[in-house]
Design a protein that fits this description.
The structure is a single chain. The chain is of the alpha+beta class. Helices cover 25% and strands 28% of the residues. The longest helix is centred in the N-terminal third of the chain and has 17 residues, at 5-21.
Length: 439
């Protein structure tokens, strides 16, 4: 059975909730996908009672998870560096270990366990320098190590503008602490709207599109909604925006004018003005967002029972014929969210032809969304070919014409996979001199 990103999106979101629960409501960043890949690579070593427990943690059968892991490592996403390694102690060899290593994807580095400096260098070079030390301190009796690394460095399709921190609203605890925050610019590349979510109720949503295919979605809920519920909403909305699944967007004309929700109006302000519009019903809606810059460095102990690493350790120990063993499973993660975009030079042209339409007097409602309290962030990988296909399909509804460059190939294995998630509770000033990220 072939498993795709769409098949594991739900299980991975549930797994992500358990990973993020390790940090609770503390400011943090994590890669649930990185931990999931580790389990998927260890899975084929399992047998007997261990395999069902690993399947339950992965959310799909072990062979299917291993197949998807192999596809992800074999064809990395343009915006995501992905690497894995399986190392063993020098002189250690068993038939089970040899069979498992032979079955690992070709992209997995294998061999004798390198020394501490080499392990740190492996982590550093495969994370663009963001992680400088290997995640686990190894003792002399370590027999086998399995590791994964994911990294991204992308730039917004359109950089943020800057705004004074008071734009977060007088009720924001961050407004007095910060000097400058980020404001969405005019034009494409950013989307801001209000959505109804099953996990967190009505939420403020901002989605920033990065070059090379990554959509980074920020979600804020009313005060008092647990971090886990807001993160769950962010994973659901982020994946849905990438894959084209339905999103329950709230019409601004169904919401009261003024500030809301809650007594302190923490999340948004809806305003109305008379305009000249081409909207068929005379009602036009727009959204903008203000949110802080932020960065985070986190370490997570993955040994909690419901994350599956106890089963993975049992499977790997079985390969080595170990009657007694102990294990450690950890993750180190880092992230930074800033104003900057990609710095490059290119000339491109696009012709936009508008059919003649009748303008009328109408009403525009604008929502300014304020991320002035702790909020969730999820980065989801996208396949630009698939996104163009979705856009072309929407644009050609009811017409016979076809877009000449629309590609019919299926999306890559990465399309729709959430790669990183964060809970932002410690904002930073937005710096006007930030340089765009480079590869």
């Amino acid at each position: 059975m072939t498993v795709t990103a769409a098949d594991v999106a739900g299980p991975l979101a549930r797994y992500a909730r358990r990973v993020h629960a390790l940090a609770g409501e503390r400011h943090h960043v994590a890669s649930p996908l990185g931990a999931w890949l580790l389990l998927a690579l260890a899975g084929p070593a399992s047998a007997g009672e261990t395999r069902p427990s690993l399947s339950a943690a992965l959310g799909c059968d072990v062979p299917a998870a291993a197949q998807l892991a192999a596809a992800l490592l074999a064809a990395p996403h343009p915006a995501v560096l992905a690497a894995a390694a399986a190392w063993h102690r020098a002189g250690l060899s068993t038939p089970g270990l040899s069979r498992w290593q032979a079955g690992l994807p070709a992209a997995v580095e294998s061999g004798v366990l390198p020394g501490p400096a080499a392990r740190d260098e492996w982590a550093r070079t495969r994370t663009l320098g963001l992680i400088g030390r290997f995640a686990v301190e190894l003792t002399p009796d370590v027999a086998l190590v399995l590791a994964t690394a994911l990294a991204t460095r992308v730039s917004w399709a359109r950089p943020f503008d800057l705004a004074p921190a008071r734009a977060l609203g007088s009720s924001s605890p961050w407004a007095a602490r910060l000097g400058r925050v980020l404001r969405t610019p005019e034009g494409p590349g950013h989307e801001a709207f209000i959505a109804a979510s099953a996990a967190a109720g009505d939420v403020a949503v901002h989605a920033a599109r990065a070059r090379d295919g990554l959509l980074v979605t920020s979600v804020a809920a009313a005060p008092g909604v647990p971090a886990g519920d807001v993160l769950a909403a962010a994973y659901d909305l982020g994946v849905s925006l990438v894959t084209g699944a339905p999103v329950a967007r709230r019409s601004l004309f169904d919401l009261p004018l003024g500030e809301g929700p809650g007594a302190d109006g923490a999340l948004w302000t809806v305003r109305e003005q008379a305009v000249s519009t081409t909207a068929p019903d005379g009602r036009e809606e727009t959204g903008r967002a203000v949110l802080p810059a932020w960065s985070a460095r986190s370490e997570h102990d993955l040994s909690r029972a419901d994350l599956g690493f106890a089963g993975a350790a049992a499977a790997l120990a079985g390969l080595l014929g170990l009657a007694g063993y102990r294990y450690a499973a950890k993750q180190a993660a880092a992230a930074r969210y800033s104003r900057t975009g990609f710095e490059a030079a290119a000339v491109s042209a696009q012709a936009v032809a508008m059919s003649a339409v009748r303008r009328r007097r109408g009403v525009r409602r604008t929502a300014e969304l304020r991320f002035g309290r702790p909020f969730a962030v999820v980065a989801v990988a996208t396949d630009e070919r698939a996104r163009r296909g979705q856009a072309s399909a929407r644009g050609l509804a009811g017409r016979r014409e076809r877009v000449a460059d629309r590609e019919t190939r299926p999306p890559t294995a990465w399309h729709g996979l959430p790669v990183f998630g964060a809970w932002v509770a410690e904002p930073e000033d937005a710096e006007p001199g930030d340089r765009p990220a480079t590869g």
